């Protein structure tokens, strides 16, 4: 398995995780800032939240961790929650904007 194919599988898994307050997956919502995969197939993700005081932050981070660790080929997973840069809707995909009627 190549790192590129593993990257595609990780993104596919992230698209199955939804923000509990917004009916859009976290990847298209723009909450994933960085995905790094090393030669040993360890995945490191930097992600944010739509608001720093989100009461469901722990659940969302846990959902991301579970989704990524279950991807075949992933040997380890680390999630880092960051708030710089601050999230805004410009990070959203066109599909997400259309789904929410924001286009």
Write the layout of secondary structure elements.
Blueprint lengths: L2 H12 L11 H4 L2 E6 L4 E6 L9 H13 L6 E6 L12 H6 L4
Parallel strand pairs: 2-3
Antiparallel strand pairs: 1-2
Structure report:
It is a single chain. With 103 residues, this protein is of the alpha+beta class. The protein is built from 4 helices and 3 strands; from the N terminus they run ααββαβα. The termini are far apart.
Task: Sum this structure up briefly.
The protein is α+β, with helices and mostly antiparallel strands.
Distance between the termini: 38 Å
Q: How much helix, percentage-wise, in residues?
A: 25-40%
Given the structure, what is the number of helices? 4
User: Count of DSSP E strands?
Assistant: 3
Oligomer: single chain
Supply Rg. 13 Å
Order of helices and strands: HHEEHEH
Identify low-pLDDT runs: none
Strand content: 15-25%
In round numbers, the mean pLDDT is 94
Structural class by secondary-structure content: alpha+beta
General form: globular
Main sheet makeup? 3 strands, mixed
Strand order of the largest sheet: 1-2-3
Features:
103 residues; globular; 4 helices; alpha+beta; 3-stranded mixed sheet; 3 strands
């Amino acid at each position: 398995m190549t790192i590129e194919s593993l990257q595609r599988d990780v993104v596919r898994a992230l698209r199955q995780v939804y923000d509990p307050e917004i009916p859009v997956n976290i990847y298209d919502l723009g909450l994933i800032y960085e995905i790094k995969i090393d030669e040993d197939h360890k995945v490191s993700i930097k992600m944010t939240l739509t608001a720093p005081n989100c009461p469901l932050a722990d659940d969302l981070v846990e959902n991301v961790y579970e989704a990524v660790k279950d991807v075949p080929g992933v040997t380890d997973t680390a999630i880092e929650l960051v708030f710089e840069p601050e999230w805004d809707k410009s990070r959203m995909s066109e599909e997400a904007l259309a789904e929410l009627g924001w286009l």
